[in-house]
Amino acid sequence: MTPPKRQRRQSQEHLPPPPAPTGKQKNPERLFVVAGPDGGERDGDLDLVTLIVARADPPPSATPEQAALLRLCTAPLSVAELSAYLNLPFSMMTVVLTDMLTAGLVTARAPIVRQAVADRSILEAVMHGLQKL
C-alpha cells in the first residue's frame, strides 16, 4: 500500500475570494436572544396540533417574532404551521407562545377532534330528510 501524496499548500494570493452573501442567506440569531430572559415558569400544554389565535394587534413593545406570530394568527393556525412559517424549532415556538399566552396576546385551544362514528340520531334525521325529497 502506498501512502497518499501530499499536496502543497497554496499561498493566500492564489485563493479565490469568499462568496458574496446572497439574499437567501441570513444572519441567524441565537435562540436564547429570541426566547428572552429566563425567569418565568413555562409549563404550557402546547403540542404540535394546538391551535393558536391572536387576541390583538402587535403592541409596539413586541419582538419581531411575536409581531410575526400575531400577524399570522388572525385565523387559527397550529403550532407546527407557525414553526414552519417562522423557521423556528418547535421548542423555541413553545417558549415564545407560552410568554405570549401569559401576556394575553394569544389564545390556545385544543384541535377539534371528530368522532369516529357519527351520532345515530343525526344519521336518521338526514335519512328521513332525504326520503322526504
Automatic annotation (TrEMBL):
Region (Disordered): 1-39
Coiled coil: none
Family annotation (InterPro entries): DUF742, WH_DNA-bd_sf
Signal peptide: none
Pfam family, one: DUF742
Protein's UniProt name: DUF742 domain-containing protein
